[in-house]
Each structure stands twice: as C-alpha cells, then as structure tokens.
C-alpha cells in the first residue's frame, strides 16, 4: 500500500489491516516516519522523534502477530505523545529549557499502558512550556504551525499533538487538558479531542501544571479512533490518589452507535456574545440545527457562574502551578545555571529558574505566589474555590435537564502566530468555553463542525457530559460526525491544504 | 563569639513567669515512607531508598500510607485528642535543598488530631497536665552533608551533598498549647513531658522514638512575662533539642537568657535558636520576619482523610495500657517508692527493666543493673539507657550468672562493660576476659591459707574477737584471685580456718 | 482590590526564587496588574455561603498498604543530577539556617 494511502487511514482501519496481515506495523511506522521527515520542518509538531524505538516496537508487534499471539486493539498504530508524559529513555522536556535533555528513569502510567497495548510511540510533541498557553508559542523550542495555515497557531498547549494529526504524521495523539489544551487545539485543526472526566486517566508521570485540573486524554481524526485510544489509556491507577476506581464508561460501544435521537441537548446562554467570531457562531448554530434534525431536543440553559470561570481558573491554575513548579531548582535534575563554585544553592536556584522558565511560566508562578500569599489567600484562592463550587452546581442543575451540553469550543478560529503573545488576557480568551469543564471535573469533546466562512479555518463544536458519562460524548459525537461527513462528502481535514 | 548574658535562675524566676510551647516530631516506624513505597530502613547506602515520588521528580504523585494514618490516630487517641472526621493534607511552600519538591506535604488548619492533653508526673510525684493543641501528619526531609567547612558545619562549607533516603519518612508533629503555670519547674515539666510522650509513643509501638537516632526531635519555644501579668512575651524557638536532658537545659538556659535581656531593658527578638550540647547554651539562628510566607493550600494531589468513627473506636479499643498507669502497676508489683519509680522513668529504664524481668531476671536485680551500672554509663554518654548497645536479655543473662554464683557483682560489672564495648554476649565476654568466680575450694583454700600466713598480726586480732578486721584478709584473697572469688565465701573460709564465728 | 506594584512583584519573585531582571519587574508588574484586575472579580462570591471546592471529585481515604516497593537504583536516582559526588546530589553551599 502506498505511504500516501497508509497515512490517511484511520487508527481503527490501520489496526484492522495490521491484525489481518494486510499491512505490517513496520510498514505503517515507516510511512509515518517518512511523512514526519517530509513535513515536520514546516509544521514542527515534534520535539523528539524516536525512530529507533518506534521501529523496534513495530517489529515487536509484527513478531507477536506472526507467533499468533493476541494483539491489543491498537496494535501497531503510531501515536504522537505530548512531551509532558515521562518516557524511559526518551527525553521529556515539557516544552521547557528547564528540562532540556532530561531522560526520565520512569514511565508514566499512560506511557506504560500505551506500550502494553502495542501502540507505537513515534515521538514527543511540542507544547506550550509546562502546558501554559493556548497557542504552543510558549514552547522553549519554537512554535508549531497549524497545517491549515502555517502562519497560524495550532492551539495550545497541545498544539504539537493536534498538528501531528492534521498533518497526517500520526493517526493518534495524546494531549493534556487543564483549561482546554486538548479541545482548543482540536477545534482549530479540525481534529477530535477529548478531555475525559477528571480522575479517569492517570496523572502519574504526567508533569503537573495544575493538579486539580490536569487531565490527559485522546486526540484523533475520528470519534471512533478517539474512543479506541480512550479505552486504552483510561482506568484506575493506584499510583494516582485522585484516580477513579470504577469501570471506564463504554466509549467504544458509544462511538460505534452514534445517535442523538430523543436526547436533550443544552445550550448555555453564557457561551455566546462579545468576543465570539461571526463564522464560529454561524457554524455552531448550524450544528444545533443539525442536532435538532437528528432528533435531539434543544434546551436553553442559564449558568451564571460560568462568567466567573475564567477568573477562577487564572487563580487556581497559577496557584497550584507555583507550587508544582517549585521542584525545578537546578539541584536534582535538569538545568543548572550559575554554579561557579562561589554562588550559594539559593542563588543558583534563583538564576536557574530565571534562565530556565519562559515569560508565561514566570508570569503564572508570580500570579500564583501572589494568590496564595498571606493576606490575599481568602480573597483570591479561597474565592476561586467557591466559584468552583458554584460552577459544579450550575452543571449539576443543567444535567438534571439535559443529557449533554453543546457550545463552540473556542470563540474564534486559529489566530496568527505572534498576534497575542504580548497580551496575556487576550490569549486567555481562547479557553473561555473550555474552562468550566476543567473546574467542575466533568468530560468534554471537541470535533469539527465546519470552516468559518470569513477565513476558511476550522471551527470546533464542544460537547460536554457529566462526570463518568464520557460515553455520551462519543454517542453524540459519532452522530454529528457522521451527519457532517455525509453533508460535506468527506472528512473536513480533506479540505486542508497539502503540505 | 559573643558571650550570652544570663541572669541567675533564681533571679529570673523571681521576676518572670515562663510560658513554653513544645513541638515534637516523631518519625514513625512504618515499613515504607509516607507517600511512596520506598523502605525506611536505616543505614542504607545513600539514595538507594528513593523513587520518583520522594525525589520530587516531574510527574510523580503521592499516595498516603495507611499505617501512617493509623499511627497518627493512635497517637491522637493516646493523647486524649479528638480525631478529625475529615481532614486534608496541605502544602507548606518553601525552598530548601533537603526538600525535593520544595514544599512539605503536611497538615495545616485541618490536623488529624486536636485538643488533647497528657498528664506528666514530676520528680516529686506531682501530676502536671500538658494540653495538646494538635498532632498532625507530615514528611521528613533528606539529609545534607556539608563538605569543605569545619566538622561538617554548614558555615564555611564549599558545597553540600544530599541523600534523600530520609526524605518522605512519615512524621507526626505534636504541638502543645502554651504551657503556663509551671513556674520554676518549667524546665522539669518540659523534660517530663517529652519523656512521657516518648513512653506513650513506644507503648503504642508506632516508633522506637530514639532521640539519639533522630526519631524523636523537640523544638522548645519559650517566652517570659513579668510575674503577675497575662500577656505572653516574645518567644524564641530553640530547634532540634535532641535528648531529654537537653530539653531541660535548653529551657533553663532560655529562661536565664530572656530574663537577662528583659531585666536590662532589652527586647527579645523572635528567632530560631540552635542548642549546643557541649555547654547547654543556645545561639541565634534565623530571624523570623514577615518574609516567611508558607502559602499553605490544600494538597491537590491527595484526597481528604475521613477516618470512619468505627475505625477510630476500633483503634481506641486496641490502645495499650498507658505508661503512667502501667508504671503505677509496676511500682506496686516491684514494691518500689514513687521516687524510685520516677528515677526509673527519668532514666528511660521502665521498658528495659520489664523486658529484663520477662527474660527471667528477678525485678530487684533488673532494677539494680539498669539503674546502677547502666544508668551511669548512659548518663556519661548522654543517651537514655535503652539506647545503650546491650539488650534486656543480655542483662538478664548477667543477672542469672550472678544468681548462680558464676559471677560476683564486680565481675558482672566487667561483663557489662565488655558487652557495651562490643566484645560480644555476656557469655562471650566471660570467656574472652576469663571472668569466672574462683569456686574451686582447693584453690580458694590455698589462697586463704596464704593470706593468713602473710598477715599473722591481723589473723591474731580476728582470733582475739575483732571480727571486723576480716575485711583486710578478704581483700588480700580477692587480690590474689584477681577479684574472681566470691567474697562471701572467702569470708566464711577465713573465719572457719581461724576458728571464730560471727 | 489593590493593584500590584513593582516592589510587590520583586517580593513575590523572591518567594518564588526567581532572579528577575529589572526590566522584567516592570514588564510583569504592568501585566500582572491587568490580570489581577481581571481575576479579582472572583471576590464577588467571597461573602456567599458556599463551601470551597479544592477538588473536583468527592473521593476520600485513598490509601496504600504499608508494603515496600522497589526503589530506583542510586544510578537511576542520580541519572539526571547536574552534579554528584559520593552517590549523593552535589549542590552549591547552602546559606540556610541549620
Ligand atoms: Mg512540621
Ligand atoms: Zn520513594
């Protein structure tokens, strides 16, 4: 099979062809490595390509098949791993100079699960430093381009993973979502991204940004592929105290049986208004119409606390981050600066942190230090935690009336690289619609719903479900995806310019 | 170095009333660390008991040790505390190289145990109630080795080397409420409290609580206020006072130092102080200014601890007899005075004596050795008796050898000395040093005859009825037998030979 | 809500052990002032009688058995160390109090 055909297969198709012997895992891996080689100079989705490791894993899969052993559901399927998960023997930088060259001595639980499922890890993808950002411009290793328009951002922080999918460098990728870092990149690249329920994917070995918000999740080009990956990475982990000890919702089954007939779908009035691009609103409204056509009942919802979500998020996340990132002190691993034999450990730590962290990271560390400091704690951190309660209550009330909620994933399409780098507040707006879900801990998905007429760039539809009802995302998502694909005559990504 | 001005203790107490706060950290004797599965075994190679969690590596996450929580609840119950129905861990944020995450996972405003008390018995038998503010769970730090300076001190060191084997070992921090009304007995109360707390911890079996090994460490906070006033003065915090004797000395020193400062019109600065074993003094450490801001917040990587009431009651039901109650029982069983029992407690010898009795010794003999030879030895080394390198079973063996007549007291002391010096078990020391009572009547008889012959004048006096003079002849025999004879038997033989009876 | 000054940023940077350059202090002071101005809205709910949520999940009592698990080898533990000596992490002289 030609490389150009192989790289366009879905993960489900690829797995099937490898299982049946129509393709070997090595062929598939080589096709994707070649694609990365051909395109990544332009896209810069990867920070590290593990050619040897990927081929070794692929050979192991082929050998396993030849021996007639049982293969995992995604055996031999290549995957792009966000550079925030630890990987034995492969550098893990979190997009920061602080960890340049750091090779972890342990695998994240998610990494281990991928390996056990016979997935082929191609390498580590670019990201905003320590996952702080919405554009991947905060990577210490340079920005990633959006395959739809290389001068525009691919979203963030998981821009590398989303760009790798959109550039057909890998059919599967892993992201992490603290305020929208899976869903917003998915929206602006016309891919599918899911933030699972908080606690359903282990955070062990995922470098912490904001512990109570961070959640790893699947990224793919189709809803079914995301579900297959979801099933591999989710599940209880005794190494993570915040991991839910309950069966993973039946996401694959839901993705195979998409339907919205008879479902109640909520539209929150707070997810609209100023700052929303006209083309985004238009595509979103069409999506709501589509849902109606498919048999859903639309319910208007009022969630007043959502107006405070962004403010609460920009207190909680930096606060936790200021503490989580304290360990980067230049003493045990990673960068050390200024150790000339005369300076103290204290000075060397301060110089290392100054040199090793980028602007956005420093900004958030200072903001978080401020919000937690004595005298301000109650007004800032304390109040933010109250907002969090109110948001959960708004969701709870809403989910008494509806099965899922829909909204635009982002207020705008991909903006040009450099446009918002000096305006943190403008940058933060990208996560307006995604943040409430992180604060409440429930699940959400972004999938493509068309191109904005004014700029021809992808628009994402967000579906939000209650905690541990992640299967509803896939049920609704699969139905929407099928209907749109039928309407467009092909997957939206086919319309992306060739690289 | 400046000399610290001190007021005499009597003068200090004539004008001022001390208020103390004691913070004790106890390292639990769990098999694993508080938040990871690394072993807590002492004496391992540097950094061989570390993992991503206790090294604070990127991505690592903590999981609470159930026995750590159980131990905390037991300590809380033994200290008559309320046990929280719901509490959390918090992060205490500050940078220090021995702390891998640069925050300590601790508890802040939601301790697992709070509002308790511990009754302690003073030397004269008086009971003093020390109120407990809280007992909370936290983790220990790593150990630094300072290189290039004098005697491993931090000052003047060129660099430091860090071993994180100790990082993450569970600690319970027990904090008293301000201890008021102890007056001149404040140092004694401080010592008695730490001693009693140590007994409680040991009785619970949650830690060996050996101060010499750093398993139990005490901070002494002390302030003075003019007699008759209510408002607390500014306190000093003397850190890491690591023996019972030092606790008393540190409190005493600070009372005298504060009094000297205050009585000359000066003010006490709120600061940490370091205690010096050599001379019992304290010197200034870090000044506690407002820059210290730990930015506590609930640890988001851990979920709340909500001990079920039936679990708490289950644990309450399994609490052992509390040490003070037990001591009163033992006092009656052994037939000793309150004062003697207090001395036994102060020497830290209660458990050792009990264990020695359990190993077969009679209680009088066990007390004699632990409170005599061994207490003296421990005192010289500034450790408590149970920290000496001799086991109760070994002491019981020595007592047995004495009881069967194989050793006399003098030889027994040499055996103990040998065991403490690491020469082996009592039997091995007896063997190696050739310490055996000369019980061969023939050899002994010859030595007696020799002594009589060599001291004819004394022998005559004894024959003439001056029996008290026999001591000189016994001494002579003991000398020729190099102490290895049973003195009582020698005396009998001499009197028999001389034909006199007592 | 009070704004944030250059001096406050300097103090926070010290707490966070960041050796900020002079121009960074100015730059951040301005930006943080804007951000704090925007996020201070949360205090609208300060007086409301709602419990704070520190955690999105209602989990409690997640504990592990006190069983030893394999540690890293000292070589693995020290593999990323910028400097080491005697199987220990080598760090510059510590100014601290102890
Ligand atoms: Mg403490
Ligand atoms: Zn460990």
From TrEMBL, chain A:
Its EC number is 6.3.5.7. The active site is at residues 82, 157, 181. It comes from the Bacteria. InterPro entries: Amidase (IPR000120), Amidase_CS (IPR020556), Amidase_dom (IPR023631), AS_sf (IPR036928), GatA (IPR004412). Gene3D superfamilies: Amidase signature (AS) domain. It is an enzyme of class 6 (ligase). This is Glutamyl-tRNA(Gln) amidotransferase subunit A. It comes from Streptomyces cirratus. The lineage of its organism: Bacteria, Bacillati, Actinomycetota, Actinomycetes, Kitasatosporales.
Automatic annotation (TrEMBL), chain B:
It catalyses: L-aspartyl-tRNA(Asn) + L-glutamine + ATP + H2O = L-asparaginyl-tRNA(Asn) + L-glutamate + ADP + phosphate + 2 H(+); L-glutamyl-tRNA(Gln) + L-glutamine + ATP + H2O = L-glutaminyl-tRNA(Gln) + L-glutamate + ADP + phosphate + H(+). Pfam families: GatB_N (PF02934), GatB_Yqey (PF02637). Residues 351-498 form the Asn/Gln amidotransferase domain. It is an enzyme of class 6 (ligase). Its EC number is 6.3.5.-. Keywords: ATP-binding, Ligase, Nucleotide-binding, Protein biosynthesis. InterPro entries: Asn/Gln-tRNA_amidoTrfase_suB/E, Asn/Gln-tRNA_Trfase_suB/E_cat, Asn/Gln_amidotransferase, Asn/Gln_tRNA_amidoTrase-B-like, GatB, GatB_Yqey_C_2, Gln-tRNA_amidoTrfase_suB_CS, Gln_synth/guanido_kin_cat_dom. It comes from the Bacteria. PANTHER family: GLUTAMYL-TRNA GLN AMIDOTRANSFERASE SUBUNIT B MITOCHONDRIAL AND PROKARYOTIC PET112-RELATED, GLUTAMYL-TRNA(GLN) AMIDOTRANSFERASE SUBUNIT B, MITOCHONDRIAL. Heterotrimer of A, B and C subunits. HAMAP family: GatB. Allows the formation of correctly charged Asn-tRNA(Asn) or Gln-tRNA(Gln) through the transamidation of misacylated Asp-tRNA(Asn) or Glu-tRNA(Gln) in organisms which lack either or both of asparaginyl-tRNA or glutaminyl-tRNA synthetases. The reaction takes place in the presence of glutamine and ATP through an activated phospho-Asp-tRNA(Asn) or phospho-Glu-tRNA(Gln). Belongs to the GatB/GatE family. GatB subfamily. This is Aspartyl/glutamyl-tRNA(Asn/Gln) amidotransferase subunit B. The gene is gatB.
From TrEMBL, chain C:
One of its GO terms (molecular function) is glutaminyl-tRNA synthase (glutamine-hydrolyzing) activity. GO terms for biological process: glutaminyl-tRNAGln biosynthesis via transamidation; regulation of translational fidelity; translation. Its EC number is 6.3.5.-. It catalyses: L-glutamyl-tRNA(Gln) + L-glutamine + ATP + H2O = L-glutaminyl-tRNA(Gln) + L-glutamate + ADP + phosphate + H(+); L-aspartyl-tRNA(Asn) + L-glutamine + ATP + H2O = L-asparaginyl-tRNA(Asn) + L-glutamate + ADP + phosphate + 2 H(+). Residues 70-98 are annotated as: Disordered. The keyword Transferase applies. Belongs to the GatC family. Allows the formation of correctly charged Asn-tRNA(Asn) or Gln-tRNA(Gln) through the transamidation of misacylated Asp-tRNA(Asn) or Glu-tRNA(Gln) in organisms which lack either or both of asparaginyl-tRNA or glutaminyl-tRNA synthetases. The reaction takes place in the presence of glutamine and ATP through an activated phospho-Asp-tRNA(Asn) or phospho-Glu-tRNA(Gln). This is Aspartyl/glutamyl-tRNA(Asn/Gln) amidotransferase subunit C. It comes from Streptomyces roseus.
């Amino acid at each position: 099979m030609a490389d150009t055909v192989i790289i366009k297969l879905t993960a489900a198709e690829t797995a099937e062809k490898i299982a049946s012997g129509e393709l070997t895992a090595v062929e598939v891996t080589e096709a994707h490595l070649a694609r990365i080689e051909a395109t990544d100079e332009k896209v810069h989705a990867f920070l590290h390509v593990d050619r040897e490791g990927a081929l070794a894993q692929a050979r192991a899969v082929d050998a396993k098949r030849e021996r007639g052993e049982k293969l995992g559901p995604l055996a031999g399927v290549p995957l792009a791993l966000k550079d925030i998960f630890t990987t034995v023997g492969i550098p893990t930088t979190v997009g920061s100079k602080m960890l340049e060259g750091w090779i972890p001595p342990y695998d994240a639980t998610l990494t281990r699960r991928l390996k056990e499922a016979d997935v082929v890890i191609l390498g580590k993808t670019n990201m905003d430093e320590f996952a702080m950002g919405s554009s991947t411009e905060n990577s210490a290793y340079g920005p990633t381009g959006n395959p739809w328009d290389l001068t525009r951002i691919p979203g963030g922080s998981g821009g590398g993973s989303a760009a790798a999918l959109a550039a057909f460098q890998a059919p599967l990728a892993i992201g992490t979502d603290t305020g929208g870092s899976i869903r917003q990149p998915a929206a602006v690249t016309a891919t599918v991204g899911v933030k699972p329920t908080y606690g359903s994917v282990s955070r062990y070995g995922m470098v912490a940004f904001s512990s109570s918000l961070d959640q790893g999740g699947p990224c793919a080009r189709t809803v079914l592929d995301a579900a297959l990956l979801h099933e591999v990475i989710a599940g209880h982990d005794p190494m993570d105290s915040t991991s839910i000890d309950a069966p993973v919702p039946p996401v694959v089954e839901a993705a195979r049986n998409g339907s919205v007939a008879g479902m109640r779908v909520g539209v929150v009035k707070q997810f609209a208004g100023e700052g929303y691009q006209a083309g985004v609103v238009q595509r979103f409204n069409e999506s709501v119409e589509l849902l109606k056509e498919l048999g859903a009942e639309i319910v208007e919802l009022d969630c007043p606390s959502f107006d405070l979500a962004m403010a609460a998020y920009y207190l909680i996340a930096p606060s936790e981050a200021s503490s989580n990132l304290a360990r980067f002190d230049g003493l045990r691993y990673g960068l050390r600066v200024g150790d000339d034999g005369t300076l103290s450990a204290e000075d060397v730590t301060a110089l290392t942190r100054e040199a090793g962290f980028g602007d956005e990271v420093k900004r958030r560390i200072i903001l978080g230090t401020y919000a937690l400091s004595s005298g301000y704690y109650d007004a800032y951190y304390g109040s933010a935690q109250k907002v969090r309660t109110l948001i959960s209550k708004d969701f709870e009330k809403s989910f008494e009336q509806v099965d899922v909620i829909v909204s635009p994933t982002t207020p705008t399409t991909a903006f040009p690289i450099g446009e918002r780098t000096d305006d943190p507040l403008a940058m933060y707006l990208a996560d307006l619609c995604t943040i409430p879900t992180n604060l409440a801990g429930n699940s959400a998905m972004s999938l493509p719903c068309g191109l904005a007429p004014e700029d021809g760039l992808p628009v994402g539809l967000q579906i939000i479900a209650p905690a541990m009802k992640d299967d509803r995302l896939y049920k609704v998502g699969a139905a929407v995806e099928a209907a749109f694909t039928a309407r467009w005559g092909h997957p939206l990504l086919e319309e992306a310019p060739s690289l | 170095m400046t000399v610290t001005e001190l007021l005499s203790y009597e003068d200090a107490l004539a004008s001022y009333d001390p208020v103390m706060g004691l913070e004790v950290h106890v390292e639990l004797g769990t098999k694993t660390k508080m938040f990871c599965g690394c072993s807590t075994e002492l004496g391992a190679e540097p950094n061989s008991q570390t993992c991503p969690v206790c090294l604070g590596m990127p991505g690592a996450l903590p999981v609470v040790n159930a026995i750590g929580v159980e131990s905390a609840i037991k300590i809380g119950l033994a200290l008559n505390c309320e046990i929280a129905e719901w509490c959390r861990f918090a992060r205490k944020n500050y940078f220090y190289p021995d702390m891998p995450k640069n925050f300590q996972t601790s508890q802040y405003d939601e301790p697992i145990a709070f509002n308790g008390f511990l009754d302690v018995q003073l030397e004269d038998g008086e009971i003093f109630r020390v109120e407990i503010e809280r007992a909370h769970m936290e983790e220990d730090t790593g150990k630094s080795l300072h290189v290039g300076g004098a005697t491993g001190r931090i000052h003047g060191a060129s660099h430091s080397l860090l071993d994180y084997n100790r990082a993450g070992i569970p600690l319970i921090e027990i904090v008293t409420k301000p201890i008021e009304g102890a007056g001149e007995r404040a140092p004694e109360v401080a010592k008695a409290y730490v001693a009693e707390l140590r007994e409680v911890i040991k009785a619970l079996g949650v830690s060996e609580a050996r101060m010499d090994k750093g398993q139990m460490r005490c901070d002494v906070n002390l302030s003075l206020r003019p007699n008759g006033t209510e408002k607390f003065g500014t306190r000093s915090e003397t850190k890491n006072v690591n023996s019972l004797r030092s606790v008393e000395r540190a409190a005493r020193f600070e009372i005298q130092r504060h009094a000297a400062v205050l009585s000359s019109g000066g003010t006490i600065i709120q600061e940490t102080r370091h205690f010096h074993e050599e001379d019992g003094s304290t010197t200034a450490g870090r000044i506690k200014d407002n820059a210290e801001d730990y930015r506590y917040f609930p640890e988001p990587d851990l979920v709340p601890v909500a001990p079920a009431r039936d679990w708490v009651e289950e644990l309450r039901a399994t609490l052992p007899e509390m040490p003070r109650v037990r001591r009163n029982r033992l006092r009656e069983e052994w037939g000793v005075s309150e004062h003697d029992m207090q001395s036994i407690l102060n020497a830290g010898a209660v458990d050792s004596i009990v264990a020695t009795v359990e190993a077969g010794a009679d209680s009088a003999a066990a007390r004699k050795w632990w409170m005599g030879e061994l207490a003296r030895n421990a005192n010289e080394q500034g450790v408590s008796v149970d920290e000496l390198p001799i086991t109760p079973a070994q002491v019981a063996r020595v007592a047995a050898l004495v009881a069967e007549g194989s050793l006399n007291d003098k030889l027994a002391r040499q055996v103990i000395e040998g065991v403490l010096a690491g020469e082996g078990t009592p039997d091995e020391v007896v063997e190696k040093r050739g310490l055996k009572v000369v019980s061969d009547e023939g050899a002994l008889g010859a030595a007696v005859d020799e002594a009589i012959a060599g001291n004819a004048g004394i022998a005559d006096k004894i024959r003439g009825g001056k029996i008290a003079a026999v001591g000189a002849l016994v001494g002579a025999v003991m000398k020729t037998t190099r102490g290895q004879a049973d003195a009582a038997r020698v005396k009998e033989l001499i009197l028999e030979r001389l034909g006199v009876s007592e | 809500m009070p704004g944030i000054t250059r001096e406050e940023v300097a103090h926070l940077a010290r707490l966070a052990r960041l050796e900020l350059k002079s121009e960074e202090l100015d730059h951040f002071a301005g930006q943080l002032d804007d951000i704090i101005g925007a996020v201070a809205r949360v205090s609208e709910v300060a007086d409301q009688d709602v419990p704070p949520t520190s955690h999105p999940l209602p989990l409690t009592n997640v504990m592990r058995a006190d069983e030893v698990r394999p540690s890293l080898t000292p070589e693995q533990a020290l593999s990323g160390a910028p400097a080491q000596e005697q199987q220990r992490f080598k760090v510059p002289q510590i100014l601290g109090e102890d």
